Amino acid sequence: MPVTGAVVPAACFDLRGVQVRLGPAPRPPALDGVSLRIVEGERVAFIGANGSGKSTLLRTIHGLLPLTAGLCQRPAGQRMAMLFQRPHMLRVSALHNVALGLWLKGMRWQESKALSHEALARVGLSDIAPRNGRALSGGQQQRLALARAWALKPDVWLLDEPTASLDPHAKREVEELIAEFTATRDGVGANTLVFASHNLGQVKRLASRVIYLEQGRVLADLPVNDFFNPDLLQALCPHAHLFVQGESW
Ligand SMILES: Nc1ncnc2c1ncn2[C@@H]1O[C@H](COP(=O)(O)OP(=O)(O)OP(=O)(O)O)[C@@H](O)[C@H]1O
Ligand SMILES: [Mg+2]
């Protein structure tokens, strides 16, 4: 009989009892006792009030912050791209903002520029390629940051409130790009998406799993359909239920 064992997806991140302090005690840690495993192909949303630890958790899984306790494991060689809550633009052209990142990763300059043109075209920014990255609008900068991430061909996308502060039209456009870019990885396997958002409609559209944070702790970790089932959420996590009731849609 052929062996047809289910394929167990590989973990992209495995956190055990993670604590992160950003300031000295007695200030409470920004993350405390966080244990979670995110596997390849998952689409995970972090939600919670301002200061609950969403950005800290994204930066921690990206490896940007030292842990004060616990473990955070990720496979070697995993390609990650992160979009920060406020995109960092260099004072050079939009094209060079993308190309320099590729060049710094070891790509030849001519190739970097060619791929950057392609990346700008993917996000609909070809016409602003020569403009200074810092002189672009918020929505254009967010799309430029997405182009930079796309050019890196990541396995894992880490996005920190990718559409906050955009107008409704730009929100929709950027969200559609995210959906498109994270749907497949060159037609092979599935991308992994981990993002923070205050937009619960967006969470419903993009996520398969929702993690609710409060004061640096994970209080709920549920499949998206369970999370948005009010009776179930109220029974499982009254704090998350209250938060969802209070958020605008
Ligand atoms: N650089 C820093 N130094 C000290 N404390 C910080 C720093 N950055 C964040 N914090 C604190 O860490 C906690 C978690 O902040 P974090 O930015 O992760 O929250 P968040 O959920 O992303 O909030 P928001 O919704 O406002 O983006 C907060 O109490 C915040 O004040
Ligand atoms: Mg944040």
Q: What is the secondary structure topology, with strand pairs?
A:
Blueprint: E1 11-20, E2 31-39, E3 43-47, H1 54-62, E4 69-73, E5 80-83, H2 94-104, H3 109-122, H4 138-151, E6 156-160, H5 168-183, E7 192-196, H6 200-206, E8 209-214, E9 217-223, H7 224-227, H8 230-236, H9 238-246
Parallel strand pairs: 3-7, 3-8, 5-6, 6-7
Antiparallel strand pairs: 1-2, 1-4, 8-9
Helix pairs in contact: 2-3, 2-4, 3-4, 4-5, 8-9
The structure holds adenosine-5'-triphosphate and magnesium ion.
The site of adenosine-5'-triphosphate has 12 residues, from helix 1.
Protein described:
It contains 9 helices and 9 strands. With 249 residues, the protein is of the alpha/beta class. The chain folds into 2 domains: 11-88 and 151-246, P-loop containing nucleotide triphosphate hydrolases (Rossmann fold, 3-Layer(aba) Sandwich); 90-135, no CATH class. It has a 6-stranded mixed sheet with strand order 5-6-7-3-8-9, with helices on both faces. A 3-stranded antiparallel sheet has the order 2-1-4. The longest helix has 16 residues, at 168-183.
Descriptive terms for the model:
9 helices; 3-stranded antiparallel beta sheet; 9 strands; 249 residues; 6-stranded mixed beta sheet; single chain; globular; 37% helix; Rossmann fold; 2 domains; binds adenosine-5'-triphosphate; alpha/beta; binds magnesium ion
Strand order of the largest sheet: 5-6-7-3-8-9
| Rounded average pLDDT | 92
Low-confidence stretches are: none
Number of helices: 9
What is the straight-line distance between the termini?
52 Å
SS elements, strand count = 9
CATH class of the largest domain: Alpha Beta
Query: What is the fold named in CATH at topology level of the largest domain?
Result: Rossmann fold
Overall CATH architecture of the largest domain = 3-Layer(aba) Sandwich
Give the overall shape: globular
Percentage beta strand: 15-25%
